[in-house]
Write a sequence for this structure.
């Protein structure tokens, strides 16, 4: 927090609503104005067991804003554009001052809607995963129905293409 703060640009995130029955329903949350947001993050570089340099990063979460709390109790910290410099300037902004930015997002910043349970499988990807489901489709199927995409989308590289 003192030396390695970062921002994660995002156009939304997923949350799973716990129904209390063991089943969780996935929701997509995205800014109502469709503009990207920046999540507060921390990064670190450390030496792995074989001497390799490993860079890691994490998104900071906080209590959910009141309009999101009905889905989940936590959410990513959203840093306002006018606070980017303050958050990122570790030399001039100490950790205590920066921690004042770790608050829930303003209410009504995000819209939330239910999406297909196919988002629960890491093999699935594609824009159909953020399509709203109709109420009848919202019931979790016994098995996800989307198949992994066969062709590589050149606009969006995958971290897993070379595995």
């Amino acid at each position: 927090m003192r030396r390695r703060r970062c921002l994660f640009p995002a156009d939304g995130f997923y949350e799973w609503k716990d129904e209390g029955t063991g089943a969780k329903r996935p929701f997509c949350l995205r800014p109502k104005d469709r503009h990207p947001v920046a999540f507060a993050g921390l990064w670190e570089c450390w030496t792995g067991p074989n001497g390799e340099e490993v860079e890691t990063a994490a998104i900071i979460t906080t209590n959910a804003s009141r309009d999101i709390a009905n889905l989940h109790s936590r959410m990513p910290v959203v840093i306002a554009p006018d606070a980017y410099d303050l958050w990122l300037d570790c030399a001039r902004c100490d950790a205590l001052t920066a921690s004042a930015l770790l608050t829930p997002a303003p209410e009504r910043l995000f819209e939330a809607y239910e999406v297909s349970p196919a988002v629960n499988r890491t093999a699935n990807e594609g824009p159909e995963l953020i399509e709203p489901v109709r109420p009848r489709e919202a019931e979790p199927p016994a098995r996800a129905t989307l198949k992994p995409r066969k062709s590589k989308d050149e606009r969006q590289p995958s971290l897993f293409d070379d595995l």
